[in-house]
Design a protein that fits this description.
By secondary structure, the chain is an alpha+beta fold. Helices cover 42% and strands 14% of the residues. The protein has a three-stranded mixed beta sheet, with no helix packed on it. Strands 1-2 form a two-stranded antiparallel sheet.
Length: 163
């Protein structure tokens, strides 16, 4: 995505959703992967906010849309989106967030606000490089790396009672 929206700063969130769907269509077309209407809707739901959604949250939203989806359908859609680099799984929350670097090979690094629940995908290539070097120094071949950093976003940090 071009101009990166920060979850705790005002921005046109509809642009986030629109760009994510455009990126997904392009990536799937390039890879000859089928972005079905249900997969597209799941991606759209995940991008509705910068808060990660669990599979059952997605299922509830689909049901309220009138879709007759079952948990396996949602899990298959999430697996597809994850395999194609369109969403990330935030393990500590057992939830999913849209990937702001769709189609690019990168290390998933996330700043997770413990107060408001927003997640920001962090870009820090030097951190990725150092993690790979440290792993390699131990003779370990790192295939994937995900870093989750919990704390307070600037907005929540400035509010009384958050320390």
């Amino acid at each position: 995505m071009s101009a990166r929206a920060i979850p705790y700063r005002p921005h046109n969130h509809d642009a986030c959703v629109s760009q994510a769907l455009t990126d997904a269509r392009t990536i799937c077309q390039r890879r000859n992967a089928r972005l079905t209407p249900i997969r597209e809707r799941v991606l759209e739901l995940i991008w509705q906010s910068h808060k990660p959604l669990g599979a059952y949250d997605v299922l509830a939203e689909l049901s309220s849309d009138g879709h007759n989806a079952a948990p396996p359908t949602v899990y298959r859609a999430l697996d597809f989106l994850q395999q194609h680099g369109l969403v990330h799984r935030i393990a500590s929350l057992n939830a999913f967030i849209g990937c702001t670097h769709a189609g690019e090979s990168h290390t998933g690094m996330f700043l997770i606000c413990r107060a408001c629940g927003n997640v920001l995908e962090l870009t820090a290539p030097e951190v990725s490089t150092e993690v790979r070097k440290a792993a390699s120094g131990e003779g370990f071949w790192a295939e994937t790396t995900t870093l989750e950093i919990a704390g307070l976003c600037p907005r929540c940090k400035s509010e009384p009672g958050h320390d």
